[in-house]
Design goal:
Radius of gyration: 19 Å
Strand order of the largest sheet: 1-2-3-5-6-7-8-10
Number of helices: 12
Shape: globular
Helix content: 40-55%
Order of helices and strands: EHEHEEHEHHEHEHEHHHEHEH
Distance between the termini: 8 Å
Length: about 325
């Protein structure tokens, strides 16, 4: 079982962004020692509970603090950025850390339209319909072209592996057509997982990058010594998502705060529907959940994301999962 890590640098309610970012560095070092293959961070904006907004900057710090683990973006939301800037940033990261950087690209802005407009500065630039053209422009910047008037330095000669990320069928089909590896966000779009996986494989064409499809699934996993403790640790992520859905995003609360919250029946139904596909429990429960996910999808790799309040509990969850993969 090939395992990797997706981290959002969660900001705890009783902490701050500095604490969250230092926790990310600590987690990267811990998971590298445990044998995880990749460590990706995600781009989010205008979220008081997530500190990974300047994704390329954070990737540089994580790569500098580690030695072997691959480090990358899960992902860079391309509608938010000019392709030239992304090429410059990731060309520089690859030049600093050759052979260790992944460039995962997403199609959605990853936030609401008002925030996306503040990030990009133009409504015309935000259309996801332009994604294939933006992606082609980005990829071109990494290749030499003497006739090109504008070049991305130091991108030429320092091209990291490209991944397409998705939560529906569009990126799955595009990744297949381009012969690129595909990472699907099963952790928040489980209902679309099997159709997207099938579409990726059906549309796949061999390329200079891959001879056959390569699929990675993002999976939300919380492991603890018992099912009861794991469910208790999962409470904060549920309350955080519920608050986000109501338009009032919050830092990651404590398990005690989540347990004391007065959930309505409708809240509980929503959380069950939203988090029912997450893998939460004791080592045996988690093992069965991961094995079933792999059997159902034939994924080549699982990228584990673990949103719990306490850093020690988060590291412990990754330790349990690593032991299960041995």
């Amino acid at each position: 079982m090939k395992l990797s890590v997706l981290d959002l640098s969660p900001i705890p309610a009783d902490g701050d962004a500095g604490t969250a970012l230092r926790n990310t560095i600590d987690l990267a070092r811990a998971t590298e020692a445990l044998g995880y293959h990749r460590f990706w961070v995600a781009e989010h904006h205008n979220m008081p509970g997530i500190a990974s907004s300047a994704t390329a900057v954070l990737i540089g710090h994580v790569a500098q603090a580690t030695e072997r683990i691959r480090v990358g973006s899960g992902g860079i939301m391309l509608p938010n950025h000019a392709p030239l800037i992304v090429a410059e940033q990731f060309g520089m990261l690859e030049a600093f850390h050759p052979g260790r950087i992944d460039l995962g690209i997403g199609r959605a802005p990853g936030t609401d339209q008002r925030t996306a407009l503040a990030v990009r500065g133009s409504m015309a630039a935000l259309s996801a319909e332009n994604f294939p053209q933006q992606l082609a422009e980005l990829m071109d910047y990494f290749e030499p072209d003497a006739a090109r008037a504008v070049n991305a330095y130091p991108a030429v000669g320092h091209k990291p592996p490209f991944w397409l990320l998705g939560s529906s069928g569009f990126s799955a089909q595009l990744a297949g057509a381009l012969g690129l590896p595909f990472a699907f966000a099963h952790h928040f779009s489980a209902q679309n997982t099997l159709p997207a996986v099938r579409l990726y494989r059906e549309s796949f064409k061999p390329s200079a990058v891959l001879d056959e499809p390569y699929l990675m699934l993002g999976a939300a996993v919380i492991a603890a010594e018992t099912d009861e403790r794991a469910q208790w640790l999962a409470g904060p992520s549920g309350l955080t998502f519920l608050s986000l859905r109501r338009g009032r995003p919050i830092p990651l609360p404590t398990p005690e705060e989540a347990a004391e919250y007065p959930y309505s029946d409708l809240d509980r139904q929503f959380l069950q529907e939203r988090f029912g596909s997450n893998i939460i429990g004791s080592p045996e429960t988690v093992r069965k959940g991961m094995e079933k996910l792999l059997a159902d999808t034939g994924a080549d790799e699982l990228m584990i994301t673990t949103m719990v309040h306490g850093q020690a509990d988060r590291v412990r969850s990754y330790e349990i999962v690593a032991d299960l993969a041995k």
